[in-house]
Design goal:
Elements: E1 3-10, E2 16-17, E3 32-33, H1 34-51, E4 56-62, E5 67-71, H2 81-111, H3 113-125, H4 134-144, H5 148-161, H6 174-209, H7 214-237, E6 241-248, H8 257-269, E7 274-278, H9 285-293, E8 298-300, H10 307-315, E9 337-338, E10 345-346, E11 350-351, E12 358-359, H11 375-386
Parallel strand pairs: 1-4, 1-6, 2-3, 6-7, 7-8
Antiparallel strand pairs: 4-5, 9-10, 11-12
Length: about 375
Amino acid sequence: MTTLLCVVLDINQENWDLPKTNNSMNEENGSLELGKFLDKFFVFLKTFLLLDPQNEFSLFLNSSSRVELIYPKPQQKSTGKKSKINEMKKERTMLKELYLKRISQQKHRKKNQLQNKQKEQIQMDFGGGGGGSGEDEILRMKEKSSFEKEIKTSISDFLTNLKPNSVEGKTTSLSESLSRVLCYINSVLKKKERQRISQQQSSNKKNTTNTMSLNQKKILSTEERVRQLELSQMLADSALRPRIMVVQLSKDVPSQYVPVMNCIFASQKIQIPIDALVLSKVDSMFLQQASHITEGVYYKTTRQTEILQILLTNFIVDHWSRRFLKLPKPSNIDYRATCFDNQKVVELGYVCSVCLSIFSKYSVLCPNCHTRFPIKKIDKIKFNSKK
């Protein structure tokens, strides 16, 4: 199953030990060095790409002031019809190449099964993955694995462009990053759907324009059906299954409770799991609820030496194959809400029936939606509760 992994990396300057500070990565001070963490994280991304040559990933940087997509870099909007036509031509040629490769593979398998088995073993040894020629697959993997320098330069540019006054404590905007990721996933899925529709339309046009005799059509009708089935299977296999992974060091911001919960319920409705790797001593209440509601993985650790092992064992598996594995689950999940006024965690509080906002103290007027509550009904409820 091909997956689209969207990573949100907490890049707050106060939570990381940057190379300029010359602080070593040790367990005594509990601090993480950004360079060493990125080296381990790149190993995780490379293994993720090796699982399937069609896997894709994107990286978002999250700070207290802004959220930015650094990989893949967003394409500039093309002006004019020529650029759009060129993009459509490239998409069609790529789909044609995939279709022709699938047909050539089936012909070779029918002729010489033994030779094909040997070729498949050689391709698997060289990272071919059993699809297409080994050289093409190796070139694709080289192109995908050349993201380290690009990500490191973009992270350094991101940190240099940050203003010192913009960092307000050890917090990040989790709600903004989740909403940006969901919008990005929506745009990618729509683009894939357009590619499928364009290929189906082109294949239907070719079938209608071909003029053949009746006997030839009867003979080739079965072959065309088989090709159409193979093409539909190929498109179904190439469909991306998105999931979100959040790497967080900062503390939760209680004022972001409502937008974060809205993003969590939106991802639950679209069936997008949210995985969370918390690299701090304190648990994240928001990410615990997010991973539990969306059926994701939540893991908290403060040991720097275990990060690579945790990434490769818990976060590399896709959502479908997690059914067959026993992954760690948080035992104590904090489901408490936060008050909208004082922004403190509330065990028992008052809920507005219109906007569902939560408050620790009783008030006749809701400060968010400004709705008035009938005092007589509230007095009756209080009187019945005392009984």
